[in-house]
Amino acid sequence: MKQIDKYRQIRAYHTEGLQFVLDWITVFPYLRYLACKTTTSVELAYLGERKRIEEDILHGAFFLTNHRDICMDSAWLSEMLRKRYLIRPYIGIGNNLFGKWWIEPLVRSLRCFVVIRNVSPREQLQNAQLLSEYLAMLRRKGKSIWLAQRQGRAKDGNDLTQPAVLKMLTLGTEDFFEAIKLLNICPVSINYEYDPCDYLKAREMQLVRDNPNWRKSRKDDLVSMQVGIEGQKGRVVYRLTPSINPEIDELLEKHPELRTQARNEQIQAVCSIIDRHIHLGYEIYERGEAFEQYLQGQLQKIHLPHKDDAFLMQKMHEMYAKPVENYNIANKQKQQ
pLDDT (tens digit, 9 = 90+) per residue, 114-127? Predict the structure, then answer.
């Protein structure tokens, strides 16, 4: 079996040359148009020594990020990396996003690969093994990759790496730490001054509170995608952080027993390093009276039969406060 056929089901970007060119000349101008329409600015920033970060990137990096918007997170990062470093990372996209006509040119031009979800446990394991092998192959070739640190966005603003992501990335490997280091993970903090989906997330939290069996519909997903793309975001900052490889070496030097511990404990140790990078990379925005007025406006967009204004406002406050709390904790730990 040829390699291209082996990975065909997860390679969303294969297409004819002419179609690819047409996608290219339509998608990237559209991304720039969205940046002008929905943000005050989209910036690429750095945590620590820029030269060191750029060396990590130019050797090929695995960009693992927090998740703010289903489509724009990876799209804007890809364009900025392309313009500044001539790098176009391969991008992970859930198969649940397919179905709208405008998704097709986006995944082709951004070189997306498909993360298959909502299948049986057996199929899920088979897909994870194939995806893990595919990503390892890309990194061996020096290609860069983007993937979110978790499935779905953190509704409460608490960005934490899901252990299942690292487990998938290292399936079938004997030495977990060496497998992680070969990926060359460079965490990225994605920061939106305003989350256009904040009121939708708060609404979902009340629905789940009132009915624990409530589940999002396909229509809910599409509404979130549309609002996330078209909604106002204010100042957007992507902050690149260095490769975690030196910190893994330091961790193993201090705690050599980790090499022989259970895989779950090894995964959790690396998750903590990734989370610390992302939390330290947060942009801390000023919040004042104008922000409170903004939240009041978002609250008015929520329509529920038994709308709990106090609960909804509390949840929106919490999702903006949690990154600040995580930043302060990570910064305090760094100074110890």
Answer: 777 777 778 878 88
> For residue 72, what pLDDT is reported?
87
Separation CA 302–CA 202 (nearest Å): 9
What are the φ and ψ backbone dihedral angles of 90, each rounded to 5 degrees? -75, 135
Of 49-58, 244-253, 287-296, the one with minimum mean pLDDT is: 49-58
Residue 289 identity:
E
CA-derived radius of gyration, the chain: 20
CATH of 3-196+234-286, one of 3.40.1130.10, 3.40.630.30, 1.10.287.1490, 3.30.70.560: 3.40.1130.10
What digits encode the pLDDT tens for the residues 191-209? 999 999 999 999 999 999 9
- Alpha-carbon distance of 129 to 136, in angstroms, equals 11
Residue position matching structure tokens 């179905």: 99
pLDDT tens digits for 209-256? 999 999 988 788 888 888 999 999 999 999 999 999 999 999 999 999
Please state the three-class secondary structure of 12-75 as a single string: CCCCCHHHHHHHHHHHHHHHHHHHHHHEEEEEEEECCCHHHHHHHHHCCCEEEECCCCCCHHHH
DSSP result, 229-261: HHS--EEEEEEE---SHHHHHHHHHH-GGGGGS
For residue 114, give the H/E element and its range: strand 112-115
Cα–Cα distance measured from residue 144 to residue 185, given in angstroms and rounded to the nearest whole number: 10
Neighbours of 124 (CB within 10 A): 14
Domain layout of the chain by residue ranges = 3-196+234-286
